[in-house]
Structures are given as structure tokens and as C-alpha cells.
Amino acid sequence: MPAPLAPYPTVSVPFTPPANGAQSQLVCSGCQNLLIYPVGATSVCCAVCNAVTSVPPPGTEMAQLVCGGCHTLLMYIRGATSVQCSCCYSINLALEANQVAHVNCGHCRMLLMYQYGAPSVKCAVCHFVTPAGASTNTTEQKFNS
């Protein structure tokens, strides 16, 4: 008898998708693609890279951020203070909404997000360093949760 190609978790009760067709999403642990799956599933197999990603327990609140190193979309459990990117291994700060501020770049006017209270922020597009809240041409706004 041939051995299975991937080690799938053993499920004692066969999975039955919800009748209402409810779906959720998560980021593949292998290739970082966004995976859509039926609510109630315990793991998802990626059709692109065949990696099996575990689904967080029901009721777990998830959040997303873009990696500062490689710009990959990262998904993490809300409340985490930092998230390590599985592509470039950068450590990204996971800031709550009340710790983030926005300012327009002083050169290209791109809307920039930065840690509230920082003295300046460097634009990832044009590399201009904008003083946070120092100019009347920039708009700084703190977002509260």
C-alpha cells in the first residue's frame, strides 16, 4: 500500500461544510497566498504549494499587516506585539490602532503610517524623511480603537 504524500491530521469526525456556505480566510503558511476555506475546517491544504495550514480556533480574532521587509501580507492573532515574516524573517511590530498615526509624505504626498510619537517617518516610495507633525503641510492623525 503506498504511503500518503502529505501528513494530514487524522480527523475522527468527517468535516461537513456549513449549510449556509460561510467562509473565512487565512494566509498560507507555505507560499503566503490568501486561502479561502469553509468555516469549521481545522486545516486547509493550499492548491498552489500543497502546504497544510492549521486554522486558528473559532473565536480567535485575527489581524493583518504588511511586512516592512518584503511587503508580504502577514496574518496574526490580534494582541500579538510582534510578527516574524516567514518569507524574509523580519520582525514586524504589531501595533494596535491607538498606537498608529498617519502623515502625508513631504515630497510625494503618499499617506504614511508610523508609530505614534515617532519624531519622523521615511517614505518607502521616494525615501524622503518627513518630520511627524512638524510641518503645516502634513496632516497627522492618531487613530483610537
SSE map:
Elements: E1 23-27, E2 34-38, E3 43-45, E4 52-54, E5 62-66, E6 73-77, E7 82-84, E8 91-93, E9 100-104, E10 111-115, E11 120-122, E12 129-131, E13 141-142
Describe, in plain words, how this protein is organized in 3D:
9% of the residues are buried. This protein has strands at residues 23-27, 34-38, 43-45, 52-54, 62-66, 73-77, 82-84, 91-93, 100-104, 111-115, 120-122, 129-131, 141-142. The chain starts with 22 loop residues before the first strand and ends with a strand. It has 145 residues and is mostly beta strands. It is 0% helix and 34% strand. The protein is elongated, with a radius of gyration of 20 Å. The strands form 6 sheets. The protein has a 3-stranded antiparallel β-sheet, with no helix packed on it. Strands 1-2 form a two-stranded antiparallel ribbon. A hairpin with a 6-residue loop joins strand 1 (23-27) and strand 2. This is Zinc finger LSD1-type domain-containing protein. Its main location: nucleus.
